[in-house]
Design brief:
Keywords: Signal. Residues 1-18 form the signal peptide. The chain is α+β, with helices and mostly antiparallel strands. It has two domains: 2-92, no CATH class; 115-287, endopeptidase fold (from Nostoc punctiforme), CATH 3.90.1720. The protein is built from eight helices and ten strands. It has helices at 2-15, 35-46, 57-78, 86-92, 115-125, 176-182, 196-210, 239-249; strands spanning 24-26, 32-34, 97-98, 103-104, 131-134, 144-148, 153-156, 172-175, 188-192, 283-287. The strands form three sheets. A six-stranded antiparallel β-sheet has the order 8-7-6-5-9-10, with helices on both faces. A two-stranded antiparallel ribbon has the order 1-2. Strands 3-4 form a two-stranded antiparallel ribbon. Helix 2 crosses helix 3 and helix 7 (196-210) packs across helix 8. The longest helix is centred in the N-terminal third of the chain and has 22 residues, at 57-78. The chain is globular, with a radius of gyration of 20 Å. It starts with a helix and ends with a strand. Residues 1-29 have low confidence and may be disordered.
Length: 288
């Protein structure tokens, strides 16, 4: 694979230097960053994933310590028979970076708006069919995704403890204001399909297949949370798969989503926009 070639070139280049991979680079009186961390970061730059103007080495090192390493270990615990090295896993997760903005999902939440104003803006923005992507994650994947099944309700599979063996009855709908409250400490980016009829079709499919076949308010479908490579299955499932499924299966004959191999597809939350085809490419409606 191309990224492995790039990775090998970087390792060879580092091998020509006097430093070893276990040595550290000192970026200030309190910032000590290992060569392993620096190598992973610069690989992301070389692959065009990281924009160093928007995501610094220091920020990456912080996220690596606080999020990436633990999440990678979760992934490895689940996928012993199909292991990825750490750099491959970062690439698979797009380094936790949204590709359309080149911004990290784990960017510190600083807003000119107050929390109350930010919440009000979010509530007034989201509508049926919108896709929500936040920085939280579960099951060895970076990020979390959900879909608006109406102008009020958010459908999601939040995951949680026990994801390795499967979490029974993990699908749920929550009001949009509660979603914001639960994610108040991290950014939620809102994506919208430009075709409103397609968005509403996808939302309806998600509601009927992941909550109630008749579209009612009572939950009658109970889905186990577990990450598997089978894109076609609805049970078990997980957050980002249900979102992409809704736009793949719920939009009739329209060619909205491209999936290369439905038998071997892990949907990463940050990469959801990349599955959409023109003229249905998602529009970023802001982060809240």
């Amino acid at each position: 694979m191309e990224y492995m070639k790039v990775f090998c070139v970087i390792l060879l280049a580092m091998g020509c230097q006097s430093m070893s991979l276990t040595e550290t680079l000192d970026f200030g009186p309190t910032e000590v960053i290992s060569n392993e961390t620096a190598t992973a970061y610069h690989l992301g730059i070389d692959m065009g994933i990281i924009d160093p103007e928007k995501y610094s080495l220091e920020s990456f090192a912080h996220d690596e310590t606080k999020v990436f390493k633990d999440t990678y270990n979760e992934y490895m615990a689940m996928n012993c028979s199909h292991p990825l090295d750490y750099q491959e896993w970062l690439i698979m997760n797009n380094y936790g970076i949204l590709p359309d903005t080149n911004e990290s999902m784990f960017q510190r939440k600083i807003s000119k708006r107050s929390t109350a104003d930010n919440k009000r803006a979010f509530i007034n923005t989201v509508k049926k069919g919108d896709i929500l992507i936040s920085g939280r994650g579960s099951g060895g994947l970076l990020g979390h995704a959900a879909i608006m099944t109406s102008d009020y309700w958010v459908l999601e599979m939040p995951g949680g403890e026990g994801f390795m063996s499967g979490i029974r009855d993990n699908n749920r709908q929550i009001p949009k204001d509660k979603w914001f409250d639960e994610h108040a400490s991290d950014w939620t980016t809102v994506y919208r399909c430009p075709d409103n009829s397609v968005a509403r079709q996808a939302a309806g499919w998600a509601d009927r297949n992941y909550y109630n076949p008749n579209g009612g308010s009572t939950k009658t479908i109970h889905i186990t949370y577990k990450i598997t490579p089978d894109f076609s299955s609805k049970n078990p499932s997980y957050c980002s798969k249900l979102v992409v499924q809704a736009y793949y299966y719920g939009t009739g004959s329209k060619s909205v989503i491209y999936i290369r191999d439905k038998s071997n597809a892990i949907i990463i939350p940050t990469t959801i926009p990349s599955y959409f085809r023109s003229p249905y490419l998602l529009v970023n409606k802001g982060k809240y």
